[in-house]
Write a structure and sequence with these properties.
The protein has 194 residues and is an all-alpha fold. The protein folds into two domains: 1-31, no CATH class; 33-191. It has helices at 2-5, 8-26, 35-67, 76-109, 112-116, 123-150, 158-191. Helix 6 (123-150) runs antiparallel to helix 7 (158-191).
């Protein structure tokens, strides 16, 4: 049993096996041919990738960034050379996965265009989608390019490195700010909060 938890890959596979057993017990496999099941499955993927994306965004803003001044200089390379690049990998790909699964889900449920055009009945989810699109753009085209400079993945002069760190940090704060109404809109559409 301990071997399962010594490897992230084995832990994830064990979670999938437990899910498959639960689905078998619940009789879910017989529903897999229905449109309803696949929209549910896409929603599950969307929520899972969104939890990773926003979880990492909040980790950067609530944990890593505020903690950096408290870390001794000789220990900071562990963050900037090991932890941050890995976290940023999962951060940017979970952002993309969240957007792709969200757009696919909207199309599967028939509210893709009503949401994007902010029509009545789809306005809350539409606002949430637009906020998420802005945030994903920020991740891929502002935060990540600047973080590559700030972390030394791309070599630049010290002044440009400092400016890149500041730009990445400020854009991450913008995304943190936008994540609050975005999450509200996502929940409001199906739970009547808008």
């Amino acid at each position: 049993m301990g071997a399962i938890f010594q490897s992230l890959g084995r832990t994830v596979i064990a979670g999938i096996v437990i899910l498959a057993i639960m689905m078998g017990v619940a009789g879910t496999f017989s529903m897999m041919g229905s449109h309803g099941y696949w929209t549910f499955f896409m929603r599950w993927l969307h929520i899972g990738s969104g939890v990773m994306w926003i979880g990492l965004l909040w980790y950067f803003n609530f944990v890593q960034t505020p903690s950096m001044p408290k870390i001794p200089d000789e220990q900071k390379p562990a963050i900037s050379k090991v932890i941050a690049p890995t976290a940023l990998f999962w951060f940017r790909w979970s952002a993309l996965a969240t957007v792709v699964t969200g757009l696919l889900l909207a199309a599967m449920l028939g509210f893709f265009m009503p949401a994007l055009t902010l029509q009545p009945g789809a306005r809350a989810i539409g606002v949430g989608m637009w906020l998420a699109l802005v945030m994903a753009f920020n991740v891929w085209f502002i935060i990540w390019p600047n973080q590559k400079k700030a972390l030394g993945i791309v070599q630049v002069e010290a002044a440009e490195k400092a400016a890149a760190a500041k730009m990445a940090g400020m854009t991450s704060r913008v995304n943190t700010m936008l994540s609050i109404p975005m999450l509200y809109c996502m929940a409001a559409q199906s739970h009547g909060g808008f």
